[in-house]
Amino acid sequence: MKHYGASRATAAALALGFMLTGCVSFGAKPPQQLLSLSAAQRVAPGTTVDAGQAPSLVVADPEAPRILDTVRIPVRVSATSVAYVTKVQWSDTPRHLFQSLLAETIAATGSRIVLDPGQYSGVPGQRLMGALVDFGIDEPSRSAIVTYDAILANPGGTILARQRFTARQPVNGRIGPETVGAPLNAAANKVAADVAAWLSTVSRP
To answer: Which stretches make up the ABC-type transport auxiliary lipoprotein component domain (predicted)?
Structure first.
């Protein structure tokens, strides 16, 4: 009898499990596409830079307003209205993705020895900080806009130079998952290249 009772309990549990399967959803529905940034300028394999030829630099994650500190892609509809592109999102937040792209682009120029901020945060070198002001789509002008405020500081924290960089790229076709990635990547690369060129003109320590 005990064995029969256990079988009935097991069957009831299985039946309840099947019923719940149709009612409960575990996790949000994944987006159809994940986007990332790809650096146009990359460090060639085997490249070495001597510490005597270039100072070290830590590229910090830029600050970002809440509207940009998300994996969703904002679309500026008007001066006071923002929407988000559906069915697509970034693989990471834009500030993390842009930090990686910026570090790779600067390293490719050879003007600085770029160090990972997580491993070398205490190294006595220069530090590039800043903020992402724009990183999304402007619907009225149908363009992707990336704006970055760069701040270069010495090891003691004294600001050596600061400058704003911005780039626009047209969005071809209807604004949607298939059309926003390429222009945002191109605009981000333009800003990163301009920052790298600017650093080569700033006085070294």
So the answer is: 44-196
CA distance 165 to 195: 7
**Is 62 within 8 Å of 99 (Cβ atoms)?**
yes
Q: Distance (Å, rounded) from C-alpha 87 to C-alpha 85?
A: 7
Q: How far apart are CA 36 and CA 25, in angstroms?
A: 28
Residue type, 146: V
**Domain 28-39+49-199: CATH class, spelled out:** alpha beta
**pTM score of the predicted model:** 0.81
Backbone angles phi, psi at 98, to 5 degrees: -70, -35
CA distance 73 to 184: 10
Per-residue pLDDT, 145: 98
Domain residue extents for the chain = 28-39+49-199
Distance (Å, whole) CA 43 – CA 63: 25
Of 89-103, 107-121, 122-136, 152-166, the least confident:
107-121
Q: Per-residue pLDDT tens for 5-50?
A: 444 444 444 343 433 334 343 445 666 789 999 999 998 786 666 6
